[in-house]
Design brief:
CATH architecture of the largest domain: 2-Layer Sandwich
Largest sheet: 5 strands, mixed
Shape: elongated
Helix content: 55-70%
Strand order of the largest sheet: 2-3-1-6-7
CATH class of the largest domain: Alpha Beta
Order of helices and strands: HHHHEHHEEHEEEHE
Radius of gyration: 33 Å
Number of domains: 2
Number of helices: 8
Strand content: 5-15%
CATH superfamily of the largest domain: Reverse transcriptase/Diguanylate cyclase domain
Structural class: alpha+beta
Distance between the termini: 27 Å
C-alpha cells in the first residue's frame, strides 16, 4: 500500500482525524504553558531568594531581621519545592493524556484500515475504490489527465473451489492480489471488488502503458499442496471520457467485463476487452 494512496484517503473515511489533531494541539499547548510557567515562577522565586540572601548578609542588618530573612528564604525554598512537585504532577498528567491520545490514534487507524482494506487479500475494498475513483475523475476533469479503469475476473474460480477446496480458492485470490500489487505503479490502485472480481485504477495511464501492465501480469500460477494452479482471467479496460461521472465509467467497465466473460468460452483463456 503506497504512501501516495494513503495521502488520498477521502475525508469520509477519516471522520475522527480532525478531532484527534485538535486534541493533540491542546495537549501541546498545555505542555508548553506548564513549561513556560514553571520557568517563570522558578526564576521569580530564585531572584527573591538571592535578594533576601543579599540583605541577610549585610553586616549592618540587625540579628532579628536576619532571622526573619532566613525564615523567608527557607519559605521560598519550600515554595520552589512545592511548585516543582506541582509541575511534575502536571507533566505526569500530560504524559498520561499523550498515551491516551496515542491509543486513540491506534484505534482510529485500525478502524480506518478495516473500513478500506479487504481482509483476505490486503487490497483496497470497493468502498474505498469508489471514493478514490470519484477523486481521480474530478482531477482528470480539471487537468485533462488520462484515467483508466481495468477490471479483471478470475476464470473458472468456482471450479477451482470445487476441485481444490475453498482454502485453495482463498490462496488463489491472495496470489492474484499479490501479483496485481507487484505489477502496478505507485500511483495506481489495486482493489478487490467482490468475490473473484478485481479492479486497477490507473491515473495518467495510456493504452500502451496498459499493455505493459498486462504483459507483466500474465502468467499467474499459485502453488497449493505441491500442485500449481494456473490462474487466468478475463479483463476489460475503459478510458475516462471528459464529462463522465465516476459511476458511469465504472458501469462501462463492468459491462465490458461481463461481455469479455461471455465471449471467453474456452477455459483458462485470457481475454482483454478495450
Amino acid at each position: 500500500m503506497s504512501n501516495q494512496n494513503l495521502d488520498l484517503i477521502p475525508p469520509s473515511l477519516d471522520p475522527g482525524q480532525e478531532q484527534l489533531a485538535e486534541e493533540h494541539s491542546r495537549i501541546d499547548q498545555q505542555d508548553s504553558w506548564v513549561r513556560k510557567y514553571s520557568v517563570f515562577v522558578s526564576l521569580l522565586l530564585t531572584s527573591a531568594i538571592v535578594g533576601l540572601a543579599f540583605l541577610a548578609l549585610r553586616q549592618n542588618t540587625e540579628t532579628s531581621f536576619k532571622l526573619r530573612l532566613t525564615e523567608a528564604i527557607f519559605g521560598l525554598i519550600a515554595l520552589i519545592i512545592l511548585f516543582n512537585v506541582y509541575t511534575l504532577r502536571q507533566e505526569i498528567l500530560i504524559k498520561r493524556l499523550r498515551t491516551q491520545l496515542f491509543d486513540k490514534h491506534n484505534q482510529f487507524y485500525a478502524l480506518r484500515t478495516q473500513a478500506m482494506i479487504d481482509p483476505l487479500t490486503g487490497l483496497y475494498n470497493r468502498r474505498f475504490a469508489e471514493q478514490r475513483l470519484a477523486a481521480e475523475v474530478a482531477r482528470s476533469e480539471r487537468a485533462g489527465h488520462p484515467l483508466g479503469v481495468l477490471m479483471l475476473d478470475i476464470s473458472n474460480f468456482k471450479q477451482i473451489n470445487e476441485t481444490y477446496t475453498r482454502a485453495a480458492g482463498d490462496q488463489v485470490l491472495q496470489g492474484f492480489a499479490t501479483r496485481l500489487s507487484r505489477v502496478i505503479r505507485g500511483s495506481d490502485l489495486a482493489v478487490r471488488l467482490d468475490g473473484d472480481e478485481f479492479l486497477i485504477l490507473l491515473p495518467d495511464c495510456t493504452a500502451d502503458q496498459l499493455k505493459r501492465v498486462m504483459g507483466r501480469l500474465s502468467p499467474v500460477q499459485v502453488e497449493w499442496n505441491g500442485q500449481k494452479i494456473p490462474v487466468t482471467f478475463a479483463a476489460a479496460w475503459k478510458q475516462y471520457e471528459l464529462g463522465e461521472r465516476s459511476e458511469e465509467i465504472l458501469a462501462r467497465a463492468e459491462q465490458a467485463l461481463a461481455t469479455a466473460k461471455r465471449t471467453n468460452s474456452t477455459p483458462h483463456v485470457e481475454t482483454l476487452a478495450l
